[in-house]
Design brief:
The complex is a heterodimer of chains A (54) and B (191).
Chain A (H helix, E strand, L loop, with lengths): L10 H23 L6 H10 L5
Chain B lengths: L6 H28 L9 H19 L18 H19 L10 H12 L2 H25 L5 H7 L2 H25 L4
Helix pairs in contact in B: 1-3, 1-4, 1-5, 2-4, 2-7, 4-5
The chains are: A mainly alpha (54), B mainly alpha (191).
């Protein structure tokens, strides 16, 4: 599977990519202050991937 | 995601779902962290490196390069609660039920990385915070659905569950998390 992300018109896909970028940026910023909390933005991203409910 | 008849009902239901789920998630995160108290403090850097390796394996799985099943229960929450308890009451129950995390399907590996992370950390506050963050991410599509797409039920769900991008984003997130854990393990920080 290629890891290239080609965005379609799906707004949830676009939001997922925005969230990934935000999570990476936020984790870097948090890492500089308190390393152990740097995983928190990734936790939000992992939750997003479950998409709401079940 | 249930389509509410009016904005006030929708807001009440989604707020109730979010708060109830946050309570359940925080409790579960704190509970998972209890196991980590048995680990010797000095061994945490080693465990963080092990977690980084687990993150890589889970990323490879989610990218489709490895195949193995995740521990999960292949069931859904109770739709009938809506008819029994109404939109807000059912939302509270759905939040409590789904917020536990293990009651329904787990699509990707990030959840299990977080379970292991809070276990290794052995700090109840940290465990509660990590799982509350996970839950808030989980409710985010529900909050954003009216903004991101038309307020229709099944069509919107189909759109949201398009996995082509989601799975890659999740795999890249796991890869990044593995990198962060490896750095923390090597430097002897975090956890």
């Amino acid at each position: 599977m290629s890891m290239t992300i080609s965005l379609d018109r799906n707004p949830f896909s676009r939001a997922a990519v925005v969230l990934l970028s935000a999570a990476i940026t936020a984790s870097l910023a948090v890492m500089r202050v308190e390393a152990r909390w740097s995983l928190l933005p990734l936790a939000v991203l992992f939750g997003w991937s479950q998409l709401g409910g079940a | 995601v249930k389509v509410a008849r009016d904005y006030r009902t929708w807001l009440s239901a989604v707020s109730a779902y979010t708060l109830a789920g946050a309570l359940a998630s925080a409790a579960v995160g704190a509970l998972f962290s209890l196991g980590g108290r048995l680990l010797p403090e000095r061994s945490r850097p080693v465990w963080l490196l092990a977690l980084a390796a687990v993150g890589l394996v889970l990323a490879a799985r989610d990218a489709g390069w490895l195949r193995f099943p995740l521990p999960q229960r292949l069931r859904q929450t109770e739709k009938s609660w809506y008819h029994q308890f109404g939109p807000v009451g059912a939302s509270v129950l759905w939040g409590l039920h789904i917020g536990v995390g293990l009651n329904t399907r787990i699509r990707f590996g990030g959840y299990w990385l977080l379970v292991l992370l809070v276990l290794v950390a052995g700090d109840s506050v940290y465990g509660a915070a990590v799982f509350t963050a996970y839950w808030l991410g989980r409710t985010l599509p529900v909050w954003l659905a009216p903004v991101l797409g038309p307020a229709v039920d099944d069509e919107l769900l189909d759109l949201a569950r398009d996995e082509r991008v989601q799975v890659k984003v999740h795999a890249l997130g796991l890869l990044w998390a593995a990198g962060l854990l490896a750095v923390q393990g090597f430097l002897g920080i975090g956890g």
